[in-house]
Design brief:
Blueprint lengths: L5 E5 L6 H12 L2 E4 L1 H13 L7 H9 L3 E6 L2 E6 L2 E2 L7 H10 L3 H15 L4 E5 L2 H5 L5 E6 L2 H14 L8 H17 L12 E4 L5 H10 L7
Parallel strand pairs: 1-6, 1-7, 2-6, 7-8
Antiparallel strand pairs: 3-4, 4-5
Helix pairs in contact: 1-9, 2-4, 7-8
This protein binds 2'-deoxycytidine-5'-monophosphate (DC).
Length: 226
């Protein structure tokens, strides 16, 4: 089997993973896959159908009649739920919470991880997620764990939401509490939780600029492979 360049960027919400992963993929001229978008798309379908994303008995049959896939169009990921491009609908706070809940269901993760694994086995790709290096492609040679303090992540997340006109009245403290809750959910679920594996290089972005964080990742990838 041909070996492709696979780069796993894991870490908690709001640490800057997607910004870094996109920049690294661009610099290397390879594909970027936002795996969280797939959990978000499924959460959207559940919420639309009035299904609680925590309700395993109802989510599993839903999963069986759902097709989720990602397509790269001019360097931008479009996420499809069945035949619908839902990329613009999955960035709300309600969907963030729903995605975190739905991702705790093992059957959900098994199906989406298999799709992601197939992409990694067929192309050079930078993937960001929670368990890419520990579960999706554990054999991957380039693993990074990107994190930042909860307060800094809350500030960044709030800025991003406000730029889209959402959550205008939420305080940093409230946002920090939501983020801490999501970290807790993502890292304590029983199946493939968020965790730093020993072979992942730690990148703490609390006091780093985006350029510095990207450089930290690029430095971890040997020149011969670029
Ligand atoms: O990265 P994000 O915020 O878009 O992810 C949304 C949720 O999806 C996150 O709270 C946990 C889940 N997720 C996951 O379990 N595994 C991934 N590889 C990506 C996301």
């Amino acid at each position: 089997m041909k070996k492709f360049l696979n780069i796993a960027i894991d870490g908690p919400a709001g640490a800057g993973k997607s910004t870094i992963a996109k920049a690294v993929a661009k610099e290397l001229g390879i594909l970027y896959l936002d795996t969280g978008a797939m959990y978000r798309a499924l959460a959207l379908k559940a919420i639309r159908e009035g299904i609680d994303p925590n309700d395993r008995d109802r989510v599993i049959p839903l999963l069986e009649r759902t097709e989720i896939f990602a397509k790269n169009i001019d360097g931008v990921q479009h996420t499809y739920l069945d035949e619908e491009d839902v990329s613009g609908l999955i960035r709300t706070n309600e969907i963030s919470k729903g995605a975190s809940d739905i991702s705790a269901i093992p059957a959900v993760r098994i199906k989406l991880a298999q799709y992601q694994r197939d992409i990694a086995h067929a192309s050079d790709v930078v993937m960001d997620g929670r368990e890419i290096g520990s579960y999706v492609i554990p054999e991957c040679e380039h693993k990074f764990y990107v994190t930042a303090s909860v307060d800094e992540r809350a500030r960044r997340r709030l800025k991003e939401l406000r730029e889209r006109g959402q959550d205008m009245n939420k305080s940093v403290e409230e946002m920090a509490a939501e983020i801490a809750q999501r970290d807790h959910n993502d890292s304590t679920r029983e199946f493939a939780p968020l965790k730093r594996v020993p072979d992942a290089i730690l990148v703490d972005t609390t006091d780093l600029t985006i350029e510095e964080a990207v450089a930290a990742v690029m430095n971890g990838i040997s020149r011969e492979e670029r």
